[in-house]
Amino acid sequence: MRAAAGARQGYTAGVFARRPLPRADDASPADRRIDLGALRRLLRFTRPYAGRLGLALAASALGSLVFLAFPVIVGDLFNAAFGAGGPSLTSWATGVGGGGAAEATGGFGNATASDLDRIALVLVVVFVLNAITSFVRVYQLAYVGESVVADLRRNLFAHLLSLSVRFFEERKTGEITSRLTSDIATIQAAVSNVLVQLVSQSVSLVGGVVVLFVINARLTLVMLAVLPAVIVAAAVFGRRLRRISTAFQDQLAAANARAEEAIAGVRVVQSFTAERFEARRYGEAIAETFASALRRARVRALFVPSVFTAFFLGIGLVLWYGGRLALAGELPPGDLITFLLLTVTVAGSIGAFTGLYSQVQEAVGASRRVFELLDTAPDLSEPAAPVALADVRGEVAFEGVRFRYGDRGDDWVLDGIDLAARPGDVVALVGPSGAGKSTLVTLISRFHDPVEGRITLDGVDLRDLDPRALRAQVGVVPQETLLFSGTIADNVRYGRPDASDAEVEAATAAANADGFVRAFPDGYATVVGERGVKLSGGQRQRIAIARALLKDPRILVLDEATSSLDSESEALVQAALDHLMRGRTTFVIAHRLSTVLNADRIVVIDGGRIVQAGRHAELLAKGGLYADLYERQFREADER
């Protein structure tokens, strides 16, 4: 049992050892600084919303200025109440102020109760203005942030769909979807918060320091002496936090990829009783993620307290020194209150900057991964001026085609293929497993390009055609049919979204599927489930044929379309396929040689080469590989 489990674990590890996405923490130490280029590129996504972002910035700056008035007004209230002198922001706004010495110093030596009322009214106005600017800032930021995230997700998803099949063969789906979800969510905070917070806190910091210098320059210098300690703490902890956050995001993406694979293949998992193995494998990945999350939490737990401790130690020093100045009569009591409140405001701004620094560090790692995907160029070039085919006849020719997968060694999968199919021909491809049959038909849709030679459609090299226009002329019915988790009508209409209900029903009837579809309570509105799991294999196959019929391609590829079906389903599907193949150039891959007896030409492939070609009777008469395969199949059938 242990040996079997170990073998299964080793095999599964090999199967899933696919090429990962680039990791941001693989960068050199020099690249681990804040990437200003990535941030500038990120901010370019805000250009369509520059007006709203500018309004949010203006509201944020105005709100910060308004809020700076609060400590000064409170100080004026104390000075007015106790008849002390000092700077008065409210004297010009309220008309408060008397004559004599008090007026000369700008104080409130002879202020009255009505003067206090006016100051209180100014305080209320300040709060109302602050509420208004906060509403504008929060709403506009939410609009910009959500819009940018939606744009990023749309652009990234559209770009992913433009990449070649090779890209998805080399990467896990879970990792890609993690970029679309968690990484872009991390970016959202930077886009919608960091810039405005930078402006807001800058205004609060600079404005606060200016007012503090006006109140008492010596006391302000004492306060500013603690800034270097804060900056050093932010730099040290921020760099460490970014590395840990990047590792956490990578590990979470890997865990999501493992979970997605197990869920997508749950029938295989359960049939091999591998539930415990998959649960343990996912649990180990989550344990690694949890460990990184705890390391990140520890660094964060040290980060903020360390910065604030350094600063509030300075505040204690300021209060001690300010108290001595107040006792000596060099600082009015209200001014000391103002200084205290402004010091807290400045401390909050510096604390916010340290938080912004860590937030930017996290966003840099996420944005790098997103931009790495956006910068991934398709490995199949598109012609600058594609040839337009007005009337596609369906003549396909392979001319000296050689092909190999670069990550599977140097052996040729296809070696010197010369093959021509006239419009309307049915060409059957047979041969042992691994001979190169499926690879050959994928080249027709240009999912890959030949390494040598060329493939033409109606005499035009496929590389000179628009890939989308080419694929619009190719219909594929694979062995494992993929249906999407919508209704039956949605799946049939997938190749032609504008098709009418009558056209959908006609295609379904031609595919011998209309009967079972109408037998469902919801008919064509029946939801098929993820990957069509609610339908049987034969039903899925007939829906796929209906989908291909409605698309009406000139070239048809049938890749083992009936090999996994029972006899009854095979007969129904084969009848639908016969209808589908009429008038189309068709390439049929089949292990059951009984399904290709009437093909116009049977091409036998072995080791990536064409070793025989002809009609069924001719090939049987010649002997060789085809005759051996045919005899072996019928002998096995007789033995069964």
Describe the structure.
The protein is α/β, with parallel strands linked by helices and 640 residues long. It folds into two domains: 47-374, ABC transporter type 1, transmembrane domain (ABC transporter transmembrane region fold), CATH 1.20.1560; 396-639, P-loop containing nucleotide triphosphate hydrolases (Rossmann fold). The protein is 62% helix and 9% strand. It is built from 22 helices and ten strands. α12 runs antiparallel to α13 (333-374) and α19 packs parallel to α20 (567-581).
Features of the shown structure:
single chain, 640 residues, alpha/beta, ABC transporter transmembrane region fold, Rossmann fold, 2 domains, six-stranded mixed β-sheet, four-stranded antiparallel β-sheet, 10 strands, elongated, disordered N terminus
Give a quick rundown of the structure:
The protein is α/β, with parallel strands linked by helices.
Mean pLDDT over all positions: 77
How many strands in all?
Answer: 10
Q: N- to C-terminal separation?
A: 33 Å
Shape: elongated
- Write out the strand line-up for the largest beta sheet, numbering strands in chain order: 6-7-8-3-9-10
Give unreliable regions as ranges: 1-32, 86-109
Rg, please?
Answer: 36 Å
**What is the CATH topology of the largest domain?**
ABC transporter transmembrane region fold
Structural class: alpha/beta
CATH fourth-tier homologous superfamily of the largest domain: ABC transporter type 1, transmembrane domain
| Number of structural domains | 2
Q: What is the name of the CATH class of the largest domain? A: Mainly Alpha
Give the fraction of residues assigned to helices. 55-70%
